[in-house]
């Protein structure tokens, strides 16, 4: 994947993970995930995966 694609996908995944976490914690309401401990745990894990994608995207091309 190209550098901008990885960074964009990583940013979107990070944002989704943060939203999932806040829904799991009950900060954001209006979905089946609201107040669910599962999403309070999975959200940060998903966000971390997104951050990894962003870092990989930013580092891509420096090795050449």
What does this structure look like?
With 64 residues, this protein is mainly alpha-helical. It contains 2 helices and no strands. It has helices spanning 3-25, 37-59. The mean pLDDT is 92.
Outline of the structure:
By secondary structure, the protein is mainly alpha-helical. It has helices at residues 3-25, 37-59. The two termini are 16 Å apart.
Write the layout of secondary structure elements.
Elements: H1 3-25, H2 37-59
Shape: elongated
Task: Determine the strand fraction and express it as a percent band.
Answer: under 5%
Radius of gyration: 14 Å
* Nearest-integer average pLDDT: 92
Low-confidence stretches: none
Percent of residues in helices: over 70%
Termini Cα gap: 16 Å
Which class best fits the helix and strand makeup? mainly alpha
Spell the H/E element sequence: HH
Q: Provide a count of the helices.
A: 2
Largest sheet: none
Overall strand count: 0
């Amino acid at each position: 994947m190209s550098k901008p694609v990885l960074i964009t996908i990583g940013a979107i995944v990070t944002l989704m993970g943060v939203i999932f976490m806040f829904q799991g914690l009950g900060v954001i309401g209006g979905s089946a995930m609201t107040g669910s401990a599962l999403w309070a745990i999975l959200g940060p894990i998903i966000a971390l995966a997104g951050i990894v994608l962003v870092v990989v995207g930013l580092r891509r091309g420096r090795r050449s």
